[in-house]
Each structure stands twice: as structure tokens, then as C-alpha cells.
Amino acid sequence: MVSISARTTISPFQFRELLARVRALLKRGQSVAGDSVLKVADLEIDPVRHRAIRKGRRIGLSAKEFALLTLLSQKTGEVLSRTQIASLVWDIHFDSDTNVVEVAIRQLRAKIDDLFGEKLIHTVRGVGYALERRI
Residues near 69 by Cβ (< 8 Å), separated by ≥ 6? Predict the structure, then answer.
């Protein structure tokens, strides 16, 4: 247990030292944020700036489309089930009667895949969806 006496004061020097350390930590955080761009083939997703770019073209996405794309890109190559996607993107318990995931995937494919030759969003029948480059 640490005890602090009533006579303990913070001098201006100590406060400046604290500020300098906080600034240094913030600068480190900015460089890390710059490295957070996710890449799959020629697709770049920047979660910090809320941007998706493919072949140099910026792609306009809704908030949910962007959340779905970010999730898929963070799990590149992994197959995510409809249940996983629904709980992680919409924060809902999956209802088998809803097609919200399929609709979102279709809209995302229209923006990410349909305008480009190489398809990155793949369906694994009976399992779910994956984002990856397939050769």
C-alpha cells in the first residue's frame, strides 16, 4: 500500500515531466494508428480513418458495411459463420429467419468485388463467409 503524506506537492518541473511523457506516449499511439491499415490483395481498409480503397479507388461504405468489411479483413482467410457476423457486427443474437447478413454481404460484394476482376469475398456453403485472395 502506498501512502502519500499531506506535505507532498507537485512541483512545476514534475508536471512538465508528466506532460512530456504523455506527449511521447501520444506520439507513439499515432505511429501505431498509421500502421493499422489492413490489406487484402489490392484492397486497403483503414479503420482509423474509416476508409476502404481498392486499386486506388475510394469505396463509399455505410457504417455497417464498413464494420463488416473490417471484421472480415481482421480475420482474413478465416470462415466466419452468419451467427458470428451477426453478433459481432450487429450485436444481435442470430435469428435464422433473418437474412440481414446475406443482404449486407451482397451489398458489400457489389462495392468491393463486382467492379473489379478479382473476387475477394467468398461463400463457404453451409459454413459462412471469408475475405481472402484466391488464386
Answer: 45, 52, 61, 108, 112, 131
Strand partners, 130: 122
Level-2 CATH architecture, domain 61-131: Orthogonal Bundle (1.10)
**Backbone torsion region of residue 88, taken as left when φ is above 0, otherwise alpha when ψ lies between -120 and 50, otherwise beta:** alpha
**Cα Rg, the chain, nearest whole Å:** 22
Span 81-111, pLDDT tens digits? 998 998 888 877 766 677 899 999 999 999 9
Q: How many Cβ atoms sit within 10 Å of the Cβ of residue 66?
A: 19
Q: Which three cell numbers stand for residue 39?
A: 490489406
